[in-house]
Write a structure and sequence with these properties.
Elements (H helix, E strand, L loop, with lengths): L1 H29 L16 E4 L2 E10 L11 E19 L3 E4 L2 E7 L6 E5 L3 H7 L8 E3 L2 E5 L6 E3 H4 L5 E4 L4 E6 L2 E10 L3 E17 L3 E4 L2 E9 L2 E6 L3 H39 L6
Antiparallel strand pairs: 1-2, 2-3, 3-13, 4-5, 5-6, 6-10, 7-8, 8-9, 11-12, 12-13, 14-15, 15-16
Helix pairs in contact: 1-4
Length: 285
């Protein structure tokens, strides 16, 4: 009697284990929710245009970890050129700047709101260009003098030097600023006792990282990224995010059910083995 009962339980748990395992396969092939979004599927170095701006996708790769949508922790770079980026720079009082291959000393007198540029003078060159004076200076009691050849007369250097070129700028004036990318036509937007601020518009290369479900702000609105597989990405409007989020919730529920089936299959398998062992236990007495 004991063996018949154990054998019956063995068959019961075995059927439950096999049925659970079989249903896992059916569920995986037919019931798993998939993310379906409207929009182009992009691969490395492919581009799309929205809001009149062109964007390029590159460097699609997996950064590690798991995630939704079959993409794992997929990331990619999204780059574009903003042709109307705003740049700013400051010209500090006491600094130097270069215009037309000439170096100028920048000064701002208190309360004037005026940036004054005074050209630096090449004393060596000026001496060489004047045949009436020696090519070197004389120094006496810390003061530098120019020496005339004819009668050895000495004149203080500051007295001999010509009036340097000066340029003055106030708020709203145009100014050519020596930016790293080359001279830029700028506008002076602010002048204080400490510095002057210049602004200009020029192209700027922008790059942001895309991640699964991560938001990105483009010129015409908010978008988010989805990776259908390990070699492609979709960049779609946030209007579809509700549908996307709902599908992720359905996927979580699906995985919970599948994990539950795995638990039933494994535990039932173990129970069937135990029942089979009990069927062969020796009878008492």
């Amino acid at each position: 009697m004991q063996r018949r009962a154990a054998a019956a339980y063995f068959l019961f748990f075995l059927v439950v284990s096999v049925a659970s395992y079989a249903y896992i396969g059916v569920a995986e092939s037919q019931q798993r929710p998939e993310v379906t979004l409207e929009g182009p599927t992009l691969t490395n170095d492919s581009s799309f245009t929205t809001g009149g701006q062109s964007y390029t996708v590159s460097n699609i790769h997996q950064s590690g970890g798991g995630g939704h949508g079959g993409g794992g922790s997929m990331v990619a770079d999204l780059s574009w050129t903003n042709n109307s980026s705003q740049y700013t720079a400051t010209i500090a009082d006491g600094s130097t700047t270069t215009l037309d291959n000439t170096t100028y000393n920048a000064t701002i007198e208190n309360g004037t709101e005026t940036l004054t540029l005074t050209a630096q003078q090449n004393v060596t060159q000026l001496l060489a260009e004047d045949s009436a004076v020696e090519n070197s200076l004389a120094t006496f009691n810390g003061t530098e003098y120019v020496v005339y050849r004819e009668n050895n007369t000495q004149v203080p250097l500051e007295t001999w030097l010509p009036e340097p070129e000066t340029r003055s700028y106030t708020v709203g004036d145009q100014f050519t600023y020596p930016a790293d990318s080359g001279p830029q036509a700028t506008t002076i937007t602010n002048v204080t006792n400490a510095s002057a601020t210049v602004e200009w518009t020029a192209p700027r290369q922008r790059t942001v990282e895309l991640s699964e479900g991560g938001n990105v702000t483009l010129d015409d609105g908010q978008y988010f990224a989805h990776f259908p597989d390990h070699s492609s990405v979709q960049v779609v409007s946030n209007a579809q995010y509700g549908e996307y989020s709902e599908t992720l919730s359905d996927q979580d529920y699906f995985h919970e059910r599948k994990n539950g089936l795995w638990g039933i299959s494994i535990l039932s398998g173990i129970a069937s083995v135990l029942m089979l062992g009990m069927a062969y236990l020796p009878n008492r007495g």
